[in-house]
Amino acid sequence: MFASPGAIAVQLGPLAVRWYGIFTAVAILVGFWLVERQARAEHLPSDEIAGCIGWAIAAGYLGARLYEVAFNWDYYGSHWAKIPAVWEGGLAIHGGLIVGGLVGVGLATRRGLPVLRTLDVVGPSVAIAQAIGSWGNFFNEEAFGGPTDLPWKLYISPTHRPLEYRGVEFFHPAFLYESIWDLAVFVALVCWLRPRWRARPGALFFWYIGLYSVGRFAIEAVRVDSFWAGGYRVPQLVSLAGIVLAVCGLVWVGRGARGGATQGGSR
Q1: How far apart (Å, rounded) are the C-alpha atoms in residues 131 and 139?
Q2: How far, in Å, CA of 32 to CA of 46, rounded?
Q3: Residue 255's pLDDT is what?
Q4: Which of 49, 118, 192, 231 shows a CA-CA span of 20 to 30 A to 79?
Q5: C-beta of residue 10 within 8 angstroms of C-beta of residue 17
Q6: Cα(first)–Cα(last) distance of the chain, in Å?
Q7: For the segment 175-230, what is each residue's pLDDT rounded down to a tens digit?
Q8: Contact 186/124 with Cβ under 8 angstroms?
Q9: CA 209: distance to chain centroid?
Q10: From the CB of residue 56, how many other CB atoms can be counted at a distance below 10 Å?
Q11: SS3 for the chain, per residue?
C-alpha cells in the first residue's frame, strides 16, 4: 500500500511548487537530452530538431489541455477559471500526442529535416518522458483505477474519490502501470528494436505508437476516469486507431526498404 504525500512540494508564501510541475519539467529535460544525444550520434541537425520539438511540446500541452477540457465540459463549462490551471493536472496525453505530433512533423517538413529519421530519434524520448511524467498523477491523486486489495494498492483521499466509490479507500495505481509500461517500451525501443530496424526510417516511431497504444488500451480498462462516447472508452478507441496506424506504418516503411534494396540491386 502507498499514498500520495500531497500535491505541493514546496510552499513559498503564496507560491506553491507542485510535484506535477516538477515531474513534467524533469520529463521534458530528460527527453530533450536524449533527443540531442541521439541526433548527434546519427549526424542529424540537433539544434533544428530541438527547435521543432520545443514548438511541438508547446502545441502538445495546448492540445492535451483542450482535449481534457472538451471531454470534461460539464465541469469546466461552469468553472472557467480552472481551464488554464494545468498545474493542477488534467492533461490528456492523446490530445498532446496528436496535436504535438502534427505540429512537429509540419515544422520538420518545412525546415527540410528528414522527417522519418527525426521521428525515430523522438519516439524513445517521448516514451521515457511519459514514464517520468506519469508520476505527477500520483501526487495529484488522479489517473487511478478501480477498487482493489492488491498489495500495491493506492490510497486515495476522500476528496479525490469518485462519488460512486466514496466509501472505498484503495484503488489500482493506473499511473504506475502506465509508467512501468512506458519504461518497458523505452527499453524495447532502444535496446532491441532500434538495432533491428535501423535501416528502415520511421519504423522505430511506428513501433513506439503501436506499443504505447497496446499498453494504454489495456490499462484504460481499469481506470475510473475514462472519457466516454457512445458507450465506449474514448482512450481505447484512440489506442485502437494508434495500433492500426502503427501496423500500416510498419508495412509502409518495410515495403519502402525492400523496394530500395531491389532498386539498388538492379543498378
Answers
A1: 14
A2: 10
A3: 85
A4: 231
A5: yes
A6: 65
A7: 999 999 999 999 999 999 999 999 999 999 999 999 999 999 999 999 998 888 88
A8: yes
A9: 10
A10: 25
A11: CEECCCCEEEEECCEEEEHHHHHHHHHHHHHHHHHHHHHHHCCCCHHHHHHHHHHHHHHHHHHHHHHHHHHCHHHHCCCHHHCCCHHHCCCCHHHHHHHHHHHHHHHHHHCCCCHHHHHHHHHHHHHHHHHHHCHHHHHHCCCCECECCCCCCEECCHHHCCHHHCCCCEECCHHHHHHHHHHHHHHHHHHHHHHHHCCCCCHHHHHHHHHHHHHHHHHHCCECCCCEECCEEHHHHHHHHHHHHHHHHHHHHHHHHHHHHHHHHHC
Q: Which three cell numbers, joined as nine digits, stand for 91? A: 492533461
Dig out the grid coordinates for 23 from the structure: 515531474
Name residues whose C-beta falls within 8 Å of residue 96's C-beta, 6 or more positions apart in sequence: 60, 61, 63, 64, 67
What residues does each domain of the chain span?
Answer: 2-196
More confident residue, 262 or 33: 33
| Backbone torsions φ then ψ of 256, nearest 5 degrees | -60, -40
Which tens digit of pLDDT belongs to each residue from 224-241? 988 888 889 999 999 999
Instruction: Give the Å distances, CA to CA, from 220 to 52, 138, 162, 238.
Output: 30, 16, 16, 11
Cα–Cα distance measured from residue 71 to residue 227, given in angstroms and rounded to the nearest whole number: 6
